[in-house]
C-alpha cells in the first residue's frame, strides 16, 4: 500500500519512517510538510497538491500536532483517502466525531491510533484482568518534556494538552486493559504561569484508580502502572507498557513494536474497509480539563 506522511517532525522521523521502511506491506511515496522532507521521497508543502498529483496513494498518515490536524484530515477524506491519525486524534472530541462522520459518508477508513496500546505488554495485561474486578490501580507517568518534546511550543498552547500529551498514552492503555470503564472524580492540574497547558496532574478516578503525571522528571523516566484485582491478581506494566508482570512473573510479549503494529493494523483495516476510532482516552483528557482544580506554578522555559 502506498502511504503519504504528513508533518515531518520528531515522531515521523523517529518512528513512522523506519516502521514503514521495515514493512513489506507499505511504501512511503510522498511527504507533505512545510519544511521537513525524507531522503529519496517526493516532497510537497501543500496537502491539496499532493492529493491531486498522487491519485494512486490511497492512505495518508498524519503526524502533525493535534490542532492543525483536522483540516488536513478533512482534505484527505474529501479526496477519498484512508486516514491514520497520530495520537491524540484531534484537538477536541467533537472534531474527531466530525471526521468519523465524514469518513463514514465518504466510505474511507479512519484509524485513530494509540501507539501505547500496541506496547508489547498491553495485550498480556488485558488478558490477565479480563473478567476481574479492579480493587486499586495507580499510574505514574513521569518524563522530561525537554528531552521528549525539545522546543515544541505547541505542547504549551491551547489544544497542545501539556503533560496530558504523554498522559493520554497512559490513559489509552488504562482504557484498553480495564475490565470496566471508570471516570474522573477529582484532580488538580499545575499550569506554569507563562503557559496555557498543565505541566503536572494528580488525578482520582472511580474504581480506585489514581494517576500522577509529571513533565519535569529528571533522571530515570517512569511510565508505569500497577493494578490489583479483588481476587488478588497483581498486574504491573513497566517501560510504557512494554513489560508486563502478572503475580510476579514476566509475561510473554507481543512480537511487533508499537509503530510497526500500528501500520500492520492499518493495513488490516484498509483490507477490511473498517474504521477504528476509540475516543475513550480523549474523553478523560476533556474531563480533566473540565473538572480539575488549577494551580499556577513556576514559569516554564526551555
Ligand atoms: P513536531 O515535531 O513538533 O511536529 C511535527 C511536524 O508537524 C513539524 O515538524 C511540522 O513540520 C508540522 N507542523 C507543526 N505545526 C504545524 C502547523 N501549525 N501546521 C502545519 N504543520 C505543522 O511534533 P511531534 O513530536 O512529531 O508530534 C506530532 C504528533 O505525534 C503529536 O500529536 C504527538 O502527540 C505525537 N507523538 C509524539 C511523540 C514524541 O515523542 N515527540 C511520540 C508519540 C506521538 P513542518 O514545519 O515541516 O511543516
UniProtKB/TrEMBL annotation:
Residues 1-111 form the Gfo/Idh/MocA-like oxidoreductase N-terminal domain. It is an enzyme of class 1 (oxidoreductase). The keyword Oxidoreductase applies. Keywords: Oxidoreductase. The keyword Transmembrane does not apply. GO terms for molecular function: L-arabinose 1-dehydrogenase (NAD+) activity; nucleotide binding. Its EC number is 1.1.1.46. InterPro entries: Gfo/Idh/MocA-like_OxRdtase_N, Gfo/Idh/MocA_oxidrdct_glycsds, NAD(P)-bd_dom_sf. Gene3D superfamilies: Dihydrodipicolinate Reductase, domain 2 (3.30.360.10), NAD(P)-binding Rossmann-like Domain (3.40.50.720). This is L-arabinose 1-dehydrogenase.
